[in-house]
Amino acid sequence: MSYEPRPGIPFDEIDTPALLLDLETFQRNVDRMAHFFADKPSSLRPHAKTHKCPQVALQQLAAGAIGITCAKVGEAAVMAAAGITDLLIANEIVGPTKIGRLTDLASTTSLIVAVDDPDNVVALSRACTAKGTSLRVLVDVDVGMRRCGVLPGEPALAMARQIAKAPGLEFAGILAYEGHLVMIPDAQERAQKVRDAFAPLAATCDALQRDGLPAQIVSSGGTGTYDMTGTCPPITEVEAGSYVFMDSTYLRIRPEFESSLTVLSTVVSRPTRDRVVTDTGMKAITKELGWPQPLDVPGASVRSLSEEHGTLVLEDSASVRLRPGDKIRFIPSHCCTTVNLYDRLHVLRRDVLVDIWPITARGCAQ
Amino acid sequence: MSYEPRPGIPFDEIDTPALLLDLETFQRNVDRMAHFFADKPSSLRPHAKTHKCPQVALQQLAAGAIGITCAKVGEAAVMAAAGITDLLIANEIVGPTKIGRLTDLASTTSLIVAVDDPDNVVALSRACTAKGTSLRVLVDVDVGMRRCGVLPGEPALAMARQIAKAPGLEFAGILAYEGHLVMIPDAQERAQKVRDAFAPLAATCDALQRDGLPAQIVSSGGTGTYDMTGTCPPITEVEAGSYVFMDSTYLRIRPEFESSLTVLSTVVSRPTRDRVVTDTGMKAITKELGWPQPLDVPGASVRSLSEEHGTLVLEDSASVRLRPGDKIRFIPSHCCTTVNLYDRLHVLRRDVLVDIWPITARGCAQ
Q: Shortest CA distance to A286 belongs to which of A337, A238, A329?
């Protein structure tokens, strides 16, 4: 059923809605982030939840990333099948079916996983022992986000000790995502709050060291905080993801990266002078962080997205000549959820389609 | 990479997040809507944008639906490949690539398509003539939604005349979706506004009749208005979609249908007494119409969805024994966009997995 455009065509001949990736901009983003970490004590382990695409992960690794972060076992399985080793699943993996899939995968590749519950530690240990495999395990510590995780200090220490004693498991360190801070608009405030959030974690890591349980890995950070978290002891690695593509939300606070990802749309109707309707609705671009931002249409803004249509209004409708069949590109407000709607990235060089990368882990929410 | 559960297992052994369909409830919904139309002058042509699944469409047709409505060429191609004929694409199909795909498909199955632009009529006619195929064409009329469409009266008449004269095209009637009315909470107000919206359309249809261009098809309606629109002249067929699954939004205004679709989740963390975190975030259940509604957890409500997690708060946390590994089902607030995140429906009969239906048109936004 699926339509595949022929490489070599100009981008505006690709059928729509379609996800476009500008290769050179993408590579500049990859290199810029890699360059930042080149002389830092911490390292980059980019998050694959953003792109779900082995081709992107391989470019990140080639630029110096030490491994790949995943959100789900299914994503890690896709990355492992592409030959990528040293995978961190930055999440709790719970329940017999999923733990079975996790330990199957651990038999073929090196996996790191997070825990925040003593029963889960027992279940992981039993599954590893039964299968003759092992897992490296991080204690998920809540540094203020109030999602998963145990608190710093004694709760984190107790869980580290439990892991260290559990057959089949190796205590490898701490996962501590400051997701509540990554989008604070003011950079100084963001940096200060990052330092404040990680102060108790530093004390916990010192106590672990004294206990003979050094945290080899302390994983944290996102595109909004990579330079703050990445230079904040005791962080050893940063999980930034969105920097490869960027979106209108992160572009506002991270101007050092560029927009490499757009959604190509077709105008399907211009029923009135001031109204333009595209074929790109909520099933082709997400809106939970705001409206998509149209490129190269002065005075145009999205007024609404329905399932299959996007409606734009025009400030100065007389000067905009858009007609049905014309193409418009949009910068998504949230790249991660938008990419998860598509099966492929159309890779462009100087506006010509040069490759198609399958988004192999699209929909791998399990 | 994908994990496929073995039919015969109880639903709570299916890995999560997973889309569950209760077969008997689904079939009651299908039959109830078919029964409504059995003695009405109008017919049911259900919208496949909701389910994107040929197995669902085939049950709708078996119950008496006269054909299937699609939003996109890609969806229609999936339905046609499953042997389903008489497909209405309730949308403008614009641009050479997409018109090429449309006319390719029209060479193998009977297609109806909508237009609202004279240049698009010319392009469709040329493409049909060049390929030696034909299309049945509806004029898309704006009855107040202010998305696509020409206005009732002279603009609609002019376009009908243009279609009737265009080689390769057959004027087949009107598309007039009252999408701005389908969710009005008060049923009486909704019914009155439906009557008001369609009054000018009735006059347009009378004028078409006098012109010797009778509208064989006047297509409209949704789950929120099926009984109002379906009994309102000049409507001949109704495009309702969501009634097969229902969601918490439509359940509030359409209690005669039942919730057949849920998302199965696993609790991955209970870091505090009053906080429960699941593995079901925005990539597994959508939130544009509201939070997912948890089943069988008294006093629980969703507080937030991040990409990969859902966080619930509990009113009476002491009485809720949920632990990591426990399963929770959610009713989505919007079934159509949630289904589009998944590759398969897990079909249950009395809580046992009896079949897996591929959501073959998932992601077919082109």
A: A337
Q: In chain A, which residues have their Cβ closer than 8 Å to the Cβ of B49?
A: 307-308
Per mean pLDDT, which range of A31-40, A212-221, B227-236, B313-322 is the poorest?
B313-322
Cβ–Cβ below 8 Å for B268 and A148: yes
The pLDDT of residue B110 is above 60 = yes
Residue A101 sits in the same domain as residue A232: yes
Across the interface, whether the CB atoms of B148 and A49 are under 8 A apart is answered no
Q: Which residues contact B272 (CB under 8 A, 6 or more apart)?
A: none
**What is the rounded distance in angstroms from the CA atom of residue B121 to the CA atom of residue B115?**
7
- Between CA B60 and CA B44 the distance in angstroms is 9
ipTM over 0.85: yes
Q: How far apart are CA B362 and CA A283, in angstroms?
A: 10
| Chain A residues touching B117 at Cβ < 8 A | 269-270, 324
pLDDT of res. A301: 96
Judgement on whether residues A294 and A327 belong to the same structural domain of the protein: yes
Q: What pLDDT was estimated at residue B316?
A: 86
Q: For A290-331, write each residue's pLDDT tens digit.
A: 999 999 999 999 999 999 999 999 998 888 889 999 999 999
Query: What integer is the mean pLDDT of B114-130?
Result: 98
Contacts of B5 in chain A (CB under 8 A): 97
Whether residue A230 sits in one domain with residue A281? no
**Contact criterion met (CB < 8 Å) for A116 and B49:** no
State the residue range of the domain holding B146: 40-246
pLDDT value, residue B1: 44
Instruction: Report yes or no on A262 lying in a domain.
Output: yes
Residues A199, A235 within the same domain:
yes
CB pairs under 8 A between A and B: 206
Number of alpha carbons in the 13 Å side-chain half-sphere of residue B57: 31
Q: Which of B91, B150, B271 faces A150 most closely, judged by CB atoms?
A: B271
Sign for the pseudo-dihedral over CA of A48, A51, A57, A63: negative
In a domain, residue A25? The reply is no
CATH number at residue A339: 2.40.37.20
Amino acid at A279: D
Q: What is the DSSP string of A29-83?
A: HHHHHHHHHHTSSSEE--BTTTT--HHHHHHHHHTT---EEESSHHHHHHHHHTT
Percentage of chain A modeled with pLDDT above 90: 97
The CATH number for A167's domain is 3.20.20.10
Residues B161 and B204 in one domain: yes
- Chain B interface, best mutation among A1, A16, A322, by max B CB count within 10 A: A1
Tell if the pTM clears 0.95, that is, is over it. Answer: yes
| Domain endpoint, select from B246, B281, B303 | B246
Cross-chain CB nearest to B271 (options A94, A149, A336): A149
- Which chain A residues are closer than 8 Å to B92 by Cβ? 268-269, 324
A contacts of B265 (beta carbons < 8 Å): none
A145 with A177, same domain? yes
Q: Are residues A224 and A97 in the same domain?
A: yes
Contacts of B223 in chain A (CB under 8 A): none
Q: How far B77 CA lies from chain A's nearest CA (Å)?
A: 6
Closest to B96 in 3D by CA, of A350, A341, A5: A5
Q: Give me chain B's average pLDDT, please.
A: 97
Nearest CA in chain A to B6: A97
Q: Is residue B28 part of a domain?
A: no
pLDDT in tens, B291-327: 999 999 999 999 999 999 999 999 988 888 899 999 9
Q: End of a domain among A215, A244, A273?
A: A244
Number of domains in chain A: 2
Q: Is B2 a member of any domain?
A: no
Coil vs helix vs strand at B348: strand
- Ramachandran area for residue B182 (φ above 0: left; ψ -120 to 50: alpha; else beta): alpha
Nearest to A1 among B81, B96, B266 (CB): B81
